[in-house]
Amino acid sequence: xxxxxxxxxxxxLDIKAQYPDAILFFRLGDFYExxxxxxxxxxxxxxxxxxxxxxxxxxxxxxxxxxxHAAEAYIAKLIERGFxxxxxxxxxxxxxxGLFPREVVRVITPGTVLESEYLLAERNNYLxxxxxxxxxxxxxxADISTGEFAAGEFMPEDAAKVLQHELARLNPAExxxxxxxxxxxxxxxxxTAIPDWRFEPDRAEAEILRHFKAKSLDGFGLGSSxxxxxxAGVLLEYLKQSQAAVLPTLSSxxxxxxxxxxxxxxxxxxNLEITSTLRKGEEKGxxxxxxxxxxxxxxxxxxxxxxxxxxxxxxxxxxxxxQVDAFFEDGLWRVEMxxxxxxxxxxxxxxxxxxVGLARPRDLVALRESLEHVPGLLDQLNQKKSKAFKALSxxxxxxxxxxxxxxxxxxEDPPATLAHSGVIRPGYSEELDALMESTRSARDWISNLExxxxxxxxxxxxxxGYNKVFGYYIEVTKxxxxxxxxDYIRKQTLVNAERYITPEMKDYEARVLSAEEQIxxxxxxxxxxxxQHITEHGxxxxxxxxxxxRLDVVAALAEVSAAKxxxxxxxxxxxxxxxxxxxxxxxxxxxxxxxxxxxxxxRFESGERIRILTGPNMSGKSTYLRQVAIIFLLAQMGCFxxxxxxxxxxxxxxxxxxxxxxEIYAGQSTFMVEMIETANILHNASKRSLLILDEIGRGTSTxxxxxxxxxxxxxxxxxxxxxxxxxxATHYHELTHMVDSLPGIRNYNVAxxxxxxxxxxxxxINPGGADKSYGIHVAELAGLPRSVINRAQEILAKFEASVxxxxxxxALPIHQMTFxxxxxxxxxxxxxxxxxxxxxxxxxxxxxxWQKRFLG
Length: 856
What we know:
The protein is an alpha/beta fold. 36% of the residues are buried. It is built from 28 helices and 27 strands.
C-alpha cells in the first residue's frame, strides 16, 4: 500500500506537476523551500545545506531552503546558469482547513527577467524564437525589460547564415526552438525546446491577434510572413505561460529585414572584435570598449545596437552625423549636455517594471528623480537651436505632469517595500491621512513612553523596544530591578535584564498595530493606483527614454571623436575607398605613453578592385586590414572615423577571413574553418561589399595554398556578381605576379628596414610587392632556439639558391636536424657524472668539452 503523504506534500506535488521543467520555490513562512531533485540542484548550484523532511511515515525527501528576503540573489545565480525558476506564494488572507492556498505567481527564465538584479544595464536581454522549414526561416525577438518586439522572415537559401548572424548580433539570453530542431551546433547559450504543435500557424496567428486585439496580421507587416508570425506567436504564448503580467510591455510589433542594415556575420564580428575581445570575450579592448562614452544605461544599450547594425541609408546616416557634428563643433555645449544626462536612471526599464506590476516604492522615486533632470536637459537642447536636433526638440515631451504627480504622491524617502508604511506622501490621500491621524495620539504616547517611564522610575538606563514576538516592551537592567513599579508585568528574562509590559502599553500597542495593518492595506491600494496612472502614460515615458538615449549616444560619439582626433566621413553611393592617414582605434588606444600609431592611407585608384598586401608577420598587415573595415563600420553607424579624411562608398556587407582557429566541437580543423568562411564570402559578396582576407590558403601545403589563394583572387576579380573592394594580405609572393594579367589588382607592401643585421618594422604601407617575408626574424623574436634559427637560415639559403639556379634532375639537398638518441654517448656520460664531487671549474671544463665534441 502506498504511503499517505501530508496535505502540504500533496499540494506541493500537484503544483510541481504543472511546472516540471522549473525549480519550484515553494513558500513556507519566511523561506522558499525546494524539494526532491530541485533541492539537490539548488544545494549544488547555490552552495546551501541539503537537509530532508518527513512527508510520510518513515519517508524522508531531500529539502533545501533560502530566506525569502534574500531570494533575489539566489534566483539570479540560477537564472545566470540557465535554470527556470517558478515562484510559488501563499495567497489569500489565511489558512483554509489548516493549509495556506498556494499558487505559482511567476516563472523566471533567462529571457524573461525584469528585475535590475538579474539584468546588465548596458545590454538588452533578448528572448528569441525560431521556426525553420524548407520554406525559410521565421525569427522573432523581444526584450520585455525595454518593450522591444520584432519579427522577420528570410528565404530558405539565406536561412542558415541569417540564423547565425542574428544569434551573433542579438546574443539572446534564451532561445526558443521546436523540439524537432537541434541548435547545439550553432548555439551554446541557454535554449528551451518547445513542442512543434505550438508553432501551428493558426494557433500562433490567433495568439498575436489576441494580444494586440487586432483583426488581421497585415497591420504588422506579417500578412504574407507566416513563418515570422509562427515564431512571434510562440514567443507571446511562452511569455503568457511564464508570466502573463509582462505582456503589456510588448505594445507594438515591428517587422524587419536585412536590407536596411549592413550585414555582419559572426566570423566578422569575432575577427573585428566589435563588442568583445577574441581571447577573453570582454568589452574592454573591443571596438565598443573604445567608442562607448555614454553616461546612461539607455545610451549604453543604444550604442551597442547602432554598432551591431550599421545603416545602409545615407540619409539616415547623415542625420546621425549631423547631430554628432553639432556636439563635435561646440565642446562647451557638449560638456554641459553630457553633465545634464548623467542624472538619468534607466527610464525604459523603470517604466516597464511599473507597467507589469513589479515596481517597488524606490523604483518610483528613481523615476521621479530622473524626470527632475528633464528640464535642465531640455534647456540645454534648446540653447543651441541646432537644425540637426529640430525634429527631436519639437517632439520632445518632458513629462512634467508625471513628475509633479510623483512629487505629490510618493514620500521623499519611502521604505524599500510595501511591507512597511510611509510610502505615500502625507496630504495625497484623505483616507490615509485620516487613518494616520486616528493613531497619532497612540503613536505619540508610545514614542514618549521611554522618557516618561525614566522620569517616573528614576531608572536612567530604562529602554522601550519592539520585536515581532512580544511587541512593545520595557527593558530594565537587573541592577535596577528593585526600582521596577508594581504595575510592570515581567514578560522575558535576559542575561543582564528583564523585559516588562503594562496593560496600558498593550492597549496603545493594539491600537497602533491594528492601524498599521490598515495603513499598509490602504497604502498598497493607493500605490497600485499610482502605478496604474503611470502605466497609462507609459508610451510617453518610453518615447522620452528613446530621446534621452539618442542624445546620449550622439554626444558620446562626438566626445570620443573630439578626444581622439576623428573626422566626419563623406559617404557616397559608389564603390569609393579614400582614407587618408587611417588608424586602428583600438590599437591606437592601447599604445603606451610616448608611442605613436603609424597612420596609413587606403586610397583605391580608378579601376582598382583588389589590393594584394605582402610583408612579414608583426609588420602591421592585419591591423591595416582591420582598420579599413572598422572605419567603414564606424562611418555607417553614424560616428566620425580615425583618419584625416575619409570618402567611402556605402558597403552592404563586410566580410573578413582573418586568423586561424579549430572548431573541434564541430569536427572542423583550422583549414576547414578557413575554407568554409572563404566559401561563404564567395557565395554572398556583392560589388558593394568590403572583403578583408588574410592569409587565404595558409592551412595547407605551400603548393595547395598558393593555388587556392590565386584562384580566390581570380574569382573575386572576374566574377560579374562580385568584383568587390578587397584587401588581400598574403605571404605568397607569387600572387604579386597577378597584377600582370588582372587589371583590377594593385600590389602593396609593408615597409621594412634592415640596419646592421637588425630588421625594423616601419608599419607603413607602400606600393609594390615585398621582396622578403622575414619569417625567420619573427621566429627569432618569438624565442626559438638559436640552433633552430641557424638551421632555418641555412635551409632558406638553399631554397633561394634553387629558385635562382635550379638544379636539373637533382633533389634539393636538405639535411634533417640531428636529435639525441636514447643511447647517445652524451647521455651515458651525463648518467655517470658525479655532480656532488664536481667543482664549478670542472663543470665549466666539462661543458666546454661536450660543446666541442658534440656540437662542433
